[in-house]
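Question thread 4412

I'm putting together a teaching handout and wanted feedback from people who do this every day. The idea is simple: show students a protein as raw sequence, then show them the structure tokens that encode its fold, then repeat with a second protein so they can compare. Below is the first pair exactly as I plan to print it.
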Amino acid sequence: MRRSINHKMDPEAARTARESLDLVFHMSNILETGLDRHTLSILIALCELGLNPESLAAVLKEHHSESLAPSSSTSPP
């Protein structure tokens, strides 16, 4: 149902898309994922393009765990 960037989305489709994102964002908050609306919209778009949602989740988990790991370059001299 996605349209190319050159075409405007009709008002009903835009409203449906906003409502869907609102619902996904609410679910994300309940599950305490820490994902913002922008990130969620990108993930939804990637899924719509055919990327595997489980693979995306694995990448996000790995990125999150790496960002929480202490960096060895920040140790004091």
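The second pair follows. I'd like the answer to focus on this one:
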Amino acid sequence: MRPGNERNNWPEMDILTVLPSNFGYVIFTYLYSWIMLSYLAVKVGAARKKYDVKYPTMYSDKAQVFNCIQRAHQNTLEVYPQWLVFQTIAALVFPLTASVLGAIWVTSRLSYAWGYYTGDPAKRMNGAYGYIGYLGVICLSIYVGLQLLGVF
């Protein structure tokens, strides 16, 4: 037992012995997603200034481009928690595959945003390839769940 853990009777478990050896790739995928979210947030902040949209107003009645920039960030935030859960479940068993799928999804969110930033909402579909990454980690998560239930 480490000093200070005298009341803890649980055996110590080093996290590095529990996680798959390639889980480091997953951590870097999470960091990449944080960079992407930060970038989208900064873009919304800059657009607020440029189009004079004061907090807490979410959308502008006058600036359609601001609304597109705001929606690119908001839509990403709406799906991000689910992606994190599925990314993590998939990565616990398939870390390298999950990292590749995660990198595809994160990159697609940038493509989605850049398309949306044009002011033409149809161009957000430039990021549609992200469904490969998103649905991929969902499918892997289902497979992991079925493995745990002994189906596979």
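Top answer:
Good format. For the second protein you could add a caption like this: Residues 41 and 73 are 7 Å apart (CA to CA). The chain has a mean pLDDT of 93.
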